[in-house]
Write a structure and sequence with these properties.
By secondary structure, this protein is mostly helical. The chain has helices spanning about 15-40, 50, 55-65, 70-80, 85-100, 105-115, 120-125, 135-145, 150-160, 165-175, 180-190, 195-205, 210-215.
Amino acid sequence: MARVRTYKSTNGIPPGAFQVFLRTSATLFFSLMLLVAGCERMTPIDTKPLDNAGMAYSAIKQLQALDITSSELAEVVKARAAGFPDDDCIELVRIYHNRNHPFSVGDTVAGLVKARLREETILQLARLDELGINAGGLELIRLAGFSDSMVLEVASHEAMGKPVFSGAALSNMRNAGMREPVLLELVRRNIPDSEAPTIIGLHRHGARDADILRRYPGA
């Protein structure tokens, strides 16, 4: 004979009613959370730090129109305080928002500005999505005395996943007396970082630039 399954009520509430109660409570909870998040989003952020950093009122209004968060504003302040222009700060935020990412690299931008990298170069690095963990190596390249062209060439290779010298390797080769045009050509030829000690050795033993380039024809 088949057994009939029975359910006990919870605190005197019929089982079906209790399940409805749970579903209703969950719905109300998530609705409340969305409401709180929406209220936080609607709360005006304090833009005084941007004003203190020297940003013009019109630029601040443009950033507000981009719906920046308070954390993004703090990152913009870092870049602006380092001397990055208003319009370029706005463009950086746009670049990151177009990727659906928050702008979070104010310190990196400030470091590159202090290394005297051109504003357009920094924007190009942002478009390449190279202001992340690799940015420290790019800053080192600039501090070693290389041009913006070298920085962008290395960044382009990194963005495409191609072999390329690290900032430390390029700095060591420059300190060994190698000229930027030769090193730039080696970068364009996709020579891997592991070859840097050999190249330095060749240079120190009297190999000419043409000899080194001949040895590394590239892919």
